[in-house]
What we know:
The structure is a homodimer. The first copy, chain A, has 10 helices and 14 strands. The first copy, chain A, is an alpha/beta fold. The first copy, chain A, folds into 2 domains: 2-193 and 302-381, Rossmann fold; 198-294, Rna Polymerase Sigma Factor, Chain: A (Orthogonal Bundle), CATH 1.10.1740. In chain A, β13 (320-326), α9 and β14 (350-356) form a beta-alpha-beta unit. Chain A is globular and about 65 Å long. Chain A starts with a helix and ends with a helix. Chains A and B meet through α4, α5, α6, α7 and α8 of A and α4, α5, α6, α7 and α8 of B. Chains A, B: This is Homoserine O-acetyltransferase. Chains A, B: Pfam families: Abhydrolase_1. Chains A, B: It is found in: Cytoplasm.
Amino acid sequence: MRWTIGATLRIAQAMTDARFGLDARVTLPGAFALDGGGELATIDVAYETYGTLAADRGNAVLVCHALTGDQYLASTHPRTGKPGWWARMVGPGKPIDTDRLFVICANVLGSCMGSSGPASIDPASGRPYAMTFPVITIRDMVRAQAALLDHLGIARLSAVVGGSMGGMQALSWAATYPERVRACVVIASAARHSAQNIAFHEVGRQAIMADPDWRGGDYYGGTPPTAGLAVARMAAHITYLSEAGLTAKFGRKLQARDAKTFGFDADFQVESYLRHQGLAFTDRFDANSYLYITRALDYFDLAEEHGGVLANAFLGTATRFCVVGFDTDWLYPTSESRTIVHALNAAGARASFVELRSPFGHDAFLLDSPELDRVMAGFLGAGA
Amino acid sequence: MRWTIGATLRIAQAMTDARFGLDARVTLPGAFALDGGGELATIDVAYETYGTLAADRGNAVLVCHALTGDQYLASTHPRTGKPGWWARMVGPGKPIDTDRLFVICANVLGSCMGSSGPASIDPASGRPYAMTFPVITIRDMVRAQAALLDHLGIARLSAVVGGSMGGMQALSWAATYPERVRACVVIASAARHSAQNIAFHEVGRQAIMADPDWRGGDYYGGTPPTAGLAVARMAAHITYLSEAGLTAKFGRKLQARDAKTFGFDADFQVESYLRHQGLAFTDRFDANSYLYITRALDYFDLAEEHGGVLANAFLGTATRFCVVGFDTDWLYPTSESRTIVHALNAAGARASFVELRSPFGHDAFLLDSPELDRVMAGFLGAGA
């Protein structure tokens, strides 16, 4: 079974990663209550850390990952062998400087890299939860991270930082635990999912559920719904890139044979690229986790949790905020960042807003961006 | 089998439609050569007409339909029972005025409403072509329409008009048969498919091909790949609507029960709407036709057919052009319309360009738009 192989690899890789951090998982006992009304008897939280926790425990930074991200922030991914997804941002002397800061990144609740999710064993049945796993929210993810910090003895974060869904968690952290967050960095994100965001996710979910191998989610131990998950990833991947970026990278360039085949092979480079993105994703991600996490994103509406007024989420906060958007991001456009900043201003919070130019759309936050590096280093350096 | 039922309905409906026009199909004998190098032994072209052909045969207007459109331009669709897709535009006293003009709309080659396509019987085998149907181009569709006009004895069109893929056919008409086209109206269209356009289509094709019921295209007489086709339609449908339009129409509104279910039902109205769009589409469209027509669209690059210079497609033309774009169309943005107009200007062609405001994105050309009506009536009235 894929996940068992992954776990074995994970353990093997943990040793080579020892220099960078921990490859740790903790089981947090006691009923974990959920926004949906249910509870989990216990939860596992898998996490990585980088740097050294100061004696006063005051230098901890929590980085929250995106939909398909994981805790391998700045260390080699055990399944893909690739560098951490934000290795350019986090490390000694880097903008999130592990010479100075203790950086934690936890796999979100509902995911598939060690934290509790639909692929986890339900202690009540001894079998994978599959679709009996409760539907979770972004705030549930945040509460699980808070429980992890309790376990680690960290009362207060120097900063919480996240891009995309990570930015939503950062916002939810600041709203849910204002006394535990000194600074909050929200990148390429939004305070709620739009109708278009929901629509794209629904396409992905329907693609997964239409795959006969999905079998109502009960595919563990059998063949996973690879084809459906690949289609879901392909559709989502388009939203991560700008039209101009796709044109610059691929345009209408043909594959190596350099002529149209008048068939249905991947004639255009962009087709081949998308197919690869879809298939590669299925090697590292669980389809049911994709269903649960997209659902959590679609449910996210921070204003709704606060009487319909976003500013109410931040009333009286002492947290400093930094909100960053990219001009070509059409998944979470900069207008969404401005909505957040207006709410922060209305709440009297200290907030700065930076709109960066990039040709790369939503994915820009993961790519080389000296301006983002400067913003991050400057904001975290100013008292974080 | 679905298509047989459809054909029966079509014949029944033809009688009720008699007042409006013909429900006709013609078999055009003789080898039909294709851009891909192959040929079809004969082709069928199904078409509808509205109005009366003048004695001098000089009042014919060809309207070209979009990807999933058909010849039921202004008459009831035989499968869905819905009004024609452009009934608001075409009819007595309407902008395309059938009191004055003889309007023809033909089902495109490769489609599934009576013209030859993958669901048609291959005379060589006596079985449906399925994936042995040759890959076709937009220009092949245009050549089939030209053959129909030859059959009808119409040497020259007063105008060719089309939106979206119909606009591409209109451009291809003007470039391929300049002497047969007095005026050309291109709405919400482009002179070539962008990398993002191709990417969305590839998602749809992969969704269809991932459906086990697709069976390499050999599903006629059995269960068609409904689930895959529905996902393809859902993904495409998002691109037909603007983000602002989706927000205005649905926002984050929940279904009637008015509370989140914390499950995977269609909680949000936009989910329910998309699912309906996907499923309804499968009742009237053949999955293989979707593969072939999206392929033709992706291959479309009018400049490439003319030495890489779009203006060369129109050198020396006497055709008058009217190019219309909608400001919120992100499938074929108005920048694509401008590219066409610049090429027309460079070729010395008579061209007007109108950018219309609409909240509805690409779909605006199908919806109520008094400005579009005025532009159309004015342009066709001025000597068409």
